[in-house]
Specification:
GO cellular component, one term: cytoplasm
Largest sheet: 4 strands, antiparallel
Protein name: Regulatory-associated protein of mTOR isoform X1
Distance between the termini: 40 Å
InterPro entries: Raptor (IPR004083), WD40/YVTN_repeat-like_dom_sf (IPR015943), WD40_repeat_dom_sf (IPR036322), WD40_rpt (IPR001680)
Pfam family, one: WD40
Shape: globular
Number of helices: 0
Number of strands: 19
GO molecular function: protein-macromolecule adaptor activity
Oligomer: single chain
Length: 209
């Protein structure tokens, strides 16, 4: 199951191994809309923007689909991108008036789309075996986690800012395969979960001892 929360409206977007995106009104505790995905594949990622009433879905077949929930069920899919050749790990819609769509597949190709144009406007190649990605909402940073037991942090130009392979300390062991990543919404802090049952917090700031 994948979800995205719209704070301004109190709406919860949900989907998964189904053929619809279901929208719930959490105040009234009721379903308000079903949006057909138009695909035979599962939904792997959701992202929404209340200002533009858009929902972006990444799918297991490699497609990224854009929906306008103000339109009827048969017309609400306004764009489909098919540039990824594998499972979409993350599809993110920047919450700005002219915000872009950023998506990445397990092959490590990060693609930037302008919602009104049919082709990507930029492509960056990151690590293979990608399992998790998060984009910082304020800074021009995104982080990738790999099944090959490392984390890479990039700037918007695709330059590597940092590589993390070991836990802190002189005898720090190798980190496990990465299962999830999340940036702090304001600060340069990154939370990481891995398959060895550890959760770690990394920061651009020096730790006080």
């Amino acid at each position: 199951m994948v979800v995205d929360w719209e704070q301004e409206t109190g709406l919860l977007m949900t989907s998964g191994d189904v053929r619809v995106i279901r929208i719930w009104d959490t105040d009234r505790e009721m379903k308000v809309q079903d949006i057909p995905t138009g695909a035979d594949s599962c939904v792997t990622s959701l992202s929404c923007d209340s200002q533009r009433s858009l929902i972006v879905a990444g799918l297991g077949d490699g497609s990224v689909r854009v929906f306008d929930r103000r339109m009827g069920p048969n017309e609400c899919r306004v764009m489909t991108y098919r540039e990824h050749g594998a499972w979409v790990v993350k599809a993110h819609l920047q919450k700005e008036t002219d915000g872009h769509i950023i998506s990445v597949s397990v092959n490590g190709d990060v693609r930037f789309f302008e919602p009104r144009t049919p082709d990507s406007i930029n492509v960056l190649q990151t690590v293979k075996g990608l399992t998790a990605l998060d984009i910082h909402p304020q800074a021009n940073l995104f982080a990738c986690g790999s099944m090959n037991q490392f984390i890479a942090v990039y700037n918007a130009n695709g330059d590597v800012i940092s590589n993390i392979k070991y836990y802190d300390g002189f005898m720090g062991q190798r980190i496990g395969a990465i299962s999830c990543l999340a940036f702090h919404p304001n600060w340069p802090h990154l939370a990481v979960g891995s398959n060895d049952y550890y959760m770690s917090i990394y920061s651009a700031e020096k730790r006080l001892r």
